[in-house]
Amino acid sequence: MNARSLRPVLLFAIVLMYPRGMLCADGGTVRLSEQRGDYRITVFTSPTPLRAGPIDISVFVQDLATGEPAAGTRATVRATPRHPGSDTICQAATTAAATNKLYQAAVFDLTEPGWWDVTILIEGQPKPIEVSFAMEAGQPLPPLGEMGPWIVWPVLAIALFSGHQWLARRKQRESRLKL
């Protein structure tokens, strides 16, 4: 088996084992899209499906008249679990945390699964605007060690098939050389 034939197998294994939480991008599931005052506010969450652990909440504020991104606005995200005795998470959404610089994003860890109430405060022009929505976070993904057998068996099957193909080709070459 040469290096060229191993490339697809390695690429498949890397994509399969790459943690979904690390595949961040602005966008994801649209949680809210509404007009408030002179703005259209759209909020996205990622990853999909939403799970306890690292999440991205992206806010896109547009000028309603032009459809262009609104300049000079600041967004603050506050997430409160419905479970009593749990702490509220509050973080400024920034363009620095966003992949797409038209958005403002807040990246933080949801500490537990369950229902969360999210409030976003938009400040900057004539008066502050507040929008809210609820979201449910599922159980976090199990540790990679627990998923190991599910990841390894397809790779093992591919390796066995590749080894068989290599041996079959080798046997054909040897039989041709004997003739």
CATH topology assignment of the largest domain: Immunoglobulin-like
Largest sheet: 4 strands, antiparallel
What spatial form do the alpha-carbon principal axes imply? Answer: elongated
Q: Mind telling me the CATH class of the largest domain? A: Mainly Beta
Q: Could you give me the name of the CATH homologous superfamily of the largest domain?
A: Immunoglobulins
- What proportion strand? 35-45%
Q: Which strands sit side by side, in order, in the main sheet?
A: 1-2-3-6
Order of helices and strands: HEEEEEEEEH
Return the domain count: 2
Average pLDDT, all residues: 85
Low-confidence stretches: 19-25
Which bin fits the share of residues in helices? 25-40%
User: What is the name of the CATH architecture of the largest domain?
Assistant: Sandwich
Tell me the distance between the termini. 25 Å
Total E-strand runs: 8
How many DSSP H or I helices? 2
Structural class by sheet pairing and helices: alpha+beta
Radius of gyration, whole Å: 24 Å
